[in-house]
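Write out this protein's structure.
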Amino acid sequence: MYIIPAIDVLDKKVVRLREGNYNDVTTYDISLEEQIEKYHANGTEIVHIIDLNGAKGDFSNQEYLFDIIQKTEMKVQYGGGVRSIEKVKELVDAGIYRVIVGTQAITNPHFLEELSKLNEGRVKYADHIVIAIDVLDEVIKYSGWLESSPIKLIEYIDKCLALGFFRFLCTDISKDGKLGGAGVELYQKLLDHSPIIKLIGSGGISSMDDIKALNALGRMESCVVGKAIYENKITIEEIKDWNLKSLINF
């Protein structure tokens, strides 16, 4: 299991939200460029960047983000406001390693079907897609966690698998931003239902003990860690040491 450091950006600032609440924001005194370089200098190969403005339909951050992302040598897993097939294609063609889709995949019944068929030359765009599943009490949330979906969690995973999407970023909203521990029970349920999925855990990770608990599930591909790094609960050196020993090959 590989640890992927997270950087959430709101109004061009590095931040963390508590349970997805835009009114409960912690802002950190470091720029996006500086944070990316810090991870890169310590051997991290992939970074998770979320445009929180984009997640709620405000795209004022995008030019700023893309200028920075295109300069880094790191692989970027990017999300926030990816609402069209054209945007997915644009991001992949621009060199984004993985594109996270969430709201549009839930609200537009044809989006994933169209995306599953999008190929150009040797590029199969579905291979670069991460399906975001943001869950609160087994209810899927979207639009920056502001709306609830009637789609059942397990049914949605089955639909995605049937269309050829196999990598999921599952955030346990009840844990997110609290440093209270990861959603091990939720991830266990998903893995028991679909052992073939590539699952990325997110939310609540507060220590290396939480990392070890996720790793003990045996089938987690990776996990995203954000606030624990900024609050010095997990050091970048610990992440470096863990990832060097990881068998996951990005």
